[in-house]
Amino acid sequence: MKQKDKKQSLKFSGRMKNISLPDFDILDEIGPDNEFKIARTAEKRHVHNKRNMLLERGRVIEVMSNYQCHVKMQEKVVTASIGGRLKQFKNHSSAILAVGDYVEVDTSPAPDYRIENILPRKNSLIRYGTGTFQKEIALAANIDQLVITCSWRMPMFKPGLADRYLILANKFHIRPIIVINKIDLCEDFVDLEDEISYYRESGIKVILSSTVTGAGIEELKEELKDMDSVFSGHSGTGKSSLINSLEPGLELLTAEVSDFNEKGKHTTTQAIMLPFSFGGYLIDTPGIKTLTLNQEDEARIPKLFPGFDRFYPHCRYRDCKHIQEEGCAILEAVDNGDLDPLRYESYRWIMQNI
Ligand SMILES: Nc1nc2c(ncn2[C@@H]2O[C@H](COP(=O)(O)OP(=O)(O)OP(=O)(O)O)[C@@H](O)[C@H]2O)c(=O)[nH]1
Ligand SMILES: [Mg+2]
Ligand SMILES: [Zn+2]
The domain at 295-352 falls in which architecture? Predict the structure, then answer.
């Protein structure tokens, strides 16, 4: 089969096997001598092309290697390459395509579709590279929600872990949903409600679920409907089981993607969007596993910690760390009994261990 025919015959079947994944680590090794070039070409990026382009809007639903993507256009999914104009910005993090990006595709040379522009992002999930120059790599863009999967027991629910994910969700401006799974193992619901009341009072959606009894699955489905959601949570909490309950077969696809290794090397930055039959997408990005709070977040956590937004605007100092400052509204709230001391302890623990 000729390359061209192959491209043409590619239709979105929901099953994507043998996909090759990008090695974004290469991008971490960009030298500082590129800085000048980037600055110089940055202007060009916004210049609209005068050639006879037919620009059509689409959405990147999968990023592959060799500057190729699957883009969902109005009615079909096409394979598109990244246009030369964008390629020259490959060293610039905001110009690296991420799954979920809205793009403009030049359809005039069909079937050789080319992505010419990346439209502004609502938000993005960012991984920080290890290199000195290339620091941020978008894993996924334009995400609606982060599903934080916890289990009530096995493993035991640890609010401190939920707190970390909630900080990340706040940081990336993504709506969090806490799912407490395995409630079939719950013997004392008063105890359970007690543990999660803080989150409910902070305005965070909490869903109690069980893939064994089916509890909460419909409620979760309602929240996911027509939204683009990323699932996160520690191993064994039941992410795969939940996805399977929501949409049998879908988890198999995500497993295929996640377990893909490039020549034995762990590739952790690729991502794919898989459609739910009831509307909306599951964004699968193994990179979520490497999302952690870092040193640079330390200054922001005093404002990102879940539930603190009700109090910190009243702190005397704008950069208050809520540790021992005078006029700290957080410390005051703990003293008054308005803020759960356990959550404050969790905050201190996170600040100490970053
Ligand atoms: N009792 C109970 N067990 C569950 C429930 N959901 C999942 N499990 C079990 O918990 C174990 C882990 O579930 P998985 O769905 O594989 O968890 P995961 O979050 O995908 O784990 P990783 O893929 O390692 O991140 C399995 O043995 C499931 O059968 C539940 O609602 N109740
Ligand atoms: Mg799993
Ligand atoms: Zn304070």
Answer: Orthogonal Bundle (1.10)
